[in-house]
Amino acid sequence: MNAPLNEAGKAQAKSFFEYYHHIPFDHLYYSALVRTKETLAPFLSLPLPATEDARIDEINWGHYEGRPPSEDTVRHYEKTVGKWRRGETHTKPEGGESLDELWHRVNDFMNDLHARQDINTALICSHGRTIKTMLCYLTGTPLSRMDHFPHKNTSLYIFEAGEPTAQCSVDHLIAGGVSYL
């Protein structure tokens, strides 16, 4: 769903920038969805190289994309995610994308990023399932276990080269007094 940030998202983005603007990022990457551009807007005004990349867009939920929660959408979501957790990562929502398809997009993006010798510290702004897929890539975790990684909107995941772990931080939201879910 290509929706803009709501007021909570705008407050989270402001807090994120205020807390992390001092970090010398070599490059900014963001998905083609409008809310990532809005989240990174203050960073994008800095003289930093930045790349929009659709390979890190959120997973496509197909027929259920952007629909308000209902008994039908919740049942479909739970059924699909249940299959993924059982290792049936080829399963896709009607008209949507499977975890395997998302993996191929993310794998391609991450391989390109790793090939960049000029980037030591990148800021990547993406979406829940896509970030969890990156975590699977970086830690060697099977896609069926991606939900073991915590996720909060506008959280920061810190990866150190050569380390098989990632740290999830919401310190910037706490320091800014901003709510997060």
Offer a concise description of the structure.
By secondary structure, the chain is α/β, with parallel strands linked by helices. It has helices spanning 7-20, 34-44, 71-85, 99-115, 128-139, 171-175, and strands at 27-30, 50-52, 122-125, 156-159, 166-169.
Report on the structure:
- With 181 residues, this protein is an alpha/beta fold.
- The chain is built from six helices and five strands; from the N terminus they run H-E-H-E-H-H-E-H-E-E-H.
- It has a single domain, classed as Rossmann fold (3-Layer(aba) Sandwich), CATH 3.40.50.1240.
- The chain has helices at residues 7-20, 34-44, 71-85, 99-115, 128-139, 171-175, and strands at residues 27-30, 50-52, 122-125, 156-159, 166-169.
- The strands form two sheets. It has a three-stranded parallel beta sheet, with helices on one face. Strands 4-5 form a two-stranded antiparallel sheet.
- Helix 1 (7-20) packs parallel to helix 2 (34-44) and helix 4 packs across helix 5 (128-139).
